[in-house]
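Entry:
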Amino acid sequence: MKNVELEKDEASEKSYSKLLWFLFVVLIPLLFAITLTLVIMTVAGVNVLDAAKQYGEKIPGISQLIQDEQKTSEQILKDRLIEQRATLEEKTLQVKKLEQELENKQKEIDSLKNEIERLNAEMETKQKSTEAEQEQKQTMKDIVKMYESMSAKNAAQIITELSDNDAVTILSSLNSEKAADILEKMDPANAAKYTSLLAKKAEANQVQ
């Protein structure tokens, strides 16, 4: 039994010695050499990652891994680019739609402005027309007052010099007594003419 245990101990010591030999003779010097090389390359301005990538592409297993990684990165970039283009196209369509809506709203506003201007012009025209009619009525009132204050003889002489339309308008605006006095001062032919015209005007007013 002691011999077996001694053999096991010797085997363990040999394995431990081999491990120590590998660490101190192979692994540690290799790591130190790699570290020193990386430091030197970095100080020299060499991009260590790019260099490692270039050398790695020459190694069969690693080169395939790098190529696969490149393809995956390129695919991701392509997918992102396609997604961004789709988003941009969607935003562009939305902008065009909003621009069209804005243009339609502007047309509606312009149409309403034109309608308002038309109504204002129409109102202004009616107002001017009303003012003109009021001025005309006021002028006629002033003329009627003037003829009412005038003697029938003088009024008859003036009226016969006017157009038939103006003469009938004035005579119809006077009170009946004053109009009769003026017609009485006219010669029979003019009196008959104006009496007939006054009668026709009265009939027309009744029809209206």
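The first helix runs from residue 2 to 43.
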